[in-house]
Automatic annotation (TrEMBL):
It catalyses: glutaryl-CoA + oxidized [electron-transfer flavoprotein] + 2 H(+) = (2E)-butenoyl-CoA + reduced [electron-transfer flavoprotein] + CO2. It is an enzyme of class 1 (oxidoreductase). The keyword Flavoprotein applies. Its EC number is 1.3.8.6. Pathway: Amino-acid metabolism; lysine degradation; Amino-acid metabolism; tryptophan metabolism. Pfam families: Acyl-CoA_dh_1 (PF00441), Acyl-CoA_dh_M (PF02770), Acyl-CoA_dh_N (PF02771). PANTHER family: GLUTARYL-COA DEHYDROGENASE, MITOCHONDRIAL. It comes from the Bacteria. This is glutaryl-CoA dehydrogenase (ETF). Keywords: FAD, Flavoprotein, Oxidoreductase, Transit peptide. One of its GO terms (biological process) is fatty acid beta-oxidation using acyl-CoA dehydrogenase. Belongs to the acyl-CoA dehydrogenase family.
Length: 387
C-alpha cells in the first residue's frame, strides 16, 4: 500500500533503530491517546496516569544520559515528539516540559545530589516536574522578570509570580527562575513547600488536555541546597528552551500529518454531487499543498536532528525550524478542517483540535516574532528586540 504521507520516502533516511522507536511510539499513540483524546480535550482533563506509561515507553528525558534516563539520540527524540503530537499537542507538551525543560535544567545545571534525587524517578514518570520562567508581565522578555530570591543566613526567600506554567499544580518539583543580587538563578522547589500556590488557568480554548497555571511565591523559604549551582544568568533557562524548541519543530509536523490524513480519509469517503470529495480538483490542490509542506517540514526537522546529534546545531537553526514548522502546521490544520466541512468543528475529527492547540504551540517557547528577530539578528548582525 502506498504511504500517502511520505511521497519522498523520508523513512529511507532513518535507521532501523529509529524506525523501530518511531513505530513503538506511534502504536502507543494509536492505542492510548487517539481513543481517549476527544473526551480528555472536552473535559479539560490531563491524564496523569499516562506519566508512568510514558516513562516505561522511554520518552521522558529520553535525550539525557545517566541517572535512569534513556540516552537516546536527538533524532529519536524528535520522532517520538512527532508521533505524540499526532495524538495531541498537550501530551507532547507534557513530555517536553518534563524532559526538555525540568529534567534538562537539573541534568545540565544541578548538583550530583539533585540529579540523583530527582532524575531517575522523573525519567520513570513517578515524579512530575515543571519549569517556571514566564511571568504575567514578562513573557518574550524574561530578563524583565520580577520574581526575586533573597539570600539569607540559612538559604533563600522567594517572592513573585509566574504564569502559563505547565503542570505546576501537579508537579512534584518546580524549577523556578528568579533574579538574585548576582543575576538570574534557578531553584528547585518541592511540592508542598509553604508559600507556593499554583492555580490552573481556566477556561481555555487551546491545550485543553494539558495543565497551565498561575503560580505565586509568598515568602517561600528554601534551603541552600535548593539552588542549581551551575546556572547563572539567562543562559540557564535558554539552554532548556532550545531543547524544547527543537522538539516542537518535530511535534508540529505530527499534528500537521494527522490533520492531513484525517482530511484525506474523509475526502475519499465523503460523496458530494455523486462523487468523492477527493475527486475534485480544488480538494486535490488542498491535499497536495498540505503534503508538500509536511514533507518539507519533516525533512527540515530531520536535518536539525542530524545536526544536533553531530554537535553542530545552532540556536538560529532551531528558531528557523520552530518558526516554519509551527506556522505551516497551523495552516495545514485549518485547511484540513475546510475539507471536513461542518463535521470538522466536532471532536469526531482532529484538525480543528490540532489548530487550536497549535495556537498555543505557536506562542510558547518563543512567538513567531521572537524567532523572526533571532533570525533577523543572525542575518543582519543587528539586534532589533528593543527597536
Amino acid at each position: 500500500m502506498t504511504n500517502t504521507s511520505d511521497v519522498l520516502a523520508l523513512d529511507s533516511l532513518l535507521t532501523a533503530d529509529e524506525l523501530a522507536l518511531r513505530d513503538r511510539v506511534r502504536d502507543y499513540t494509536a492505542q492510548r491517546i487517539r481513543p481517549n483524546i476527544a473526551r480528555w480535550y472536552e473535559d479539560a482533563h490531563f491524564p496523569r496516569e499516562l506519566a508512568p506509561e510514558l516513562g516505561e515507553l522511554g520518552v521522558l528525558g529520553m535525550h539525557l544520559d545517566g541517572y535512569g534516563c534513556p540516552g537516546r539520540t536527538a533524532v529519536e527524540y524528535g520522532l517520538a515528539a512527532m508521533e505524540l503530537e499526532a495524538g495531541d499537542s498537550g501530551i507532547r507538551t507534557f513530555v517536553s516540559v518534563q524532559g526538555s525543560l525540568a529534567m534538562t535544567a537539573i541534568h545540565k545545571w544541578g548538583s550530583e545530589a539533585q540529579k540523583e534525587q530527582w532524575l531517575p524517578r522523573m525519567a520513570a514518570g513517578e515524579l512530575i516536574g515543571c519549569f517556571a520562567l514566564t511571568e504575567p508581565t514578562a513573557g518574550s522578555d524574561p530578563s524583565s522578570m520580577t520574581t526575586f530570591a533573597r539570600e539569607t543566613a540559612d538559604g533563600w526567600v522567594l517572592e513573585g509570580a509566574k504564569r502559563w506554567i505547565g503542570l505546576a499544580s501537579i508537579a512534584d518539583v518546580m524549577v523556578v527562575w528568579a533574579k538574585t543580587e548576582d543575576g538570574i538563578r534557578g531553584f528547585l522547589v518541592p511540592a508542598g513547600t509553604s508559600g507556593v500556590t499554583a492555580t490552573p488557568i481556566e477556561p481555555k480554548l487551546s491545550m485543553r488536555a494539558s495543565i497551565q497555571c498561575d503560580v505565586k511565591f509568598d515568602g517561600v523559604r528554601l534551603g541552600p541546597e535548593a539552588v542549581l549551582p551551575g546556572a547563572m544568568g539567562l543562559k540557564g533557562p535558554f539552554s532548556c528552551l532550545n531543547e524544547a524548541r527543537y522538539g516542537i519543530a518535530w511535534g508540529a509536523m505530527g499534528a500537521a500529518r494527522d490533520s492531513y490524513e484525517a482530511a484525506l480519509e474523509y475526502a475519499g469517503n465523503r460523496l458530494q454531487f455523486g462523487r468523492p470529495l477527493a475527486g475534485y480538483q480544488l480538494t486535490q490542490e488542498k491535499l497536495v499543498n498540505m503534503l508538500v509542506e509536511i514533507q518539507k517540514g519533516t525533512m527540515l526537522a530531520l536535518h536539525l536532528g542530524r545536526l544536533k546529534d553531530a554537535g553542530h546545531l545552532q540556536p538560529q537553526q532551531i528558531s528557523l525550524g520552530k518558526l516554519n514548522n509551527v506556522r505551516e502546521a497551523i495552516k495545514i490544520a485549518r485547511e484540513a478542517r475546510t475539507i471536513l466541512g461542518g463535521n470538522g468543528v466536532t471532536l469526531d475529527y482532529s484538525p480543528l483540535r490540532h489548530a487550536n492547540n497549535l495556537e498555543s504551540v505557536r506562542t510558547y517557547e518563543g512567538t513567531d516574532e521572537v524567532h523572526t528577530l533571532i533570525l533577523g539578528q543572525h542575518i543582519t548582525g543587528i539586534g532589533a528586540f528593543r527597536g
